[in-house]
Amino acid sequence: QLQLVESGGGLVQSGGSLRLSCAASGYAMDYYNIGWFRQRSGKGREGVSCISRRSGSANYVDSVKDRFTISIDRAKNTMYLQMNSLKPEDTAIYYCAANDYSGPLDPHCQGHWDYWGQGTQVTVSS
Fold first, then answer.
1. Checking phi first, is residue 100 left (phi over 0); if not, alpha (psi -120 to 50) or beta?
2. Is the confidence at residue 55, as pLDDT, over 90?
3. For residue 30, what pLDDT is reported?
4. 3 within 8 A of 25, measured Cβ to Cβ
5. What whole-number distance in Å separates Cα of residue 86 and Cα of residue 12?
6. What are the pLDDT digits (tens) for 5-25?
7. 56 φ/ψ angles, rounded to the nearest 5 degrees
8. CA distance 68 to 82
9. Which residues touch 57 (CB under 8 Å, ≥6 apart)?
10. Which of 67, 110, 119, 124: CA 20 to 30 A from 19?
């Protein structure tokens, strides 16, 4: 079974950067769609970015476009979320996830995701 472990969260000032990591074990990430999600206080979990295993293309929610970048290091079986120009509204628990759905991904990464990491807290101070 695929297992995911996030790291890299923390406290950063507005305008700063953080890079989140998600290390996979059990299977190679190549076999899965992968994504990053976040849950802000008092709100539901939302998609941030995801990569299709079929096309290799990445989707981003509008609020993070041009600021966040998702990537995969296949040699390390690890995916990343580089977050630049952080804003206080980016404060949330961030989760990585994976599924083996064979169709196209929703533009906002909605859908059923089978495997989840434990989450990492990102706090952006103003």
1. alpha
2. no
3. 86
4. yes
5. 8
6. 999 999 999 999 999 999 999
7. 80, 0
8. 5
9. 51
10. 110
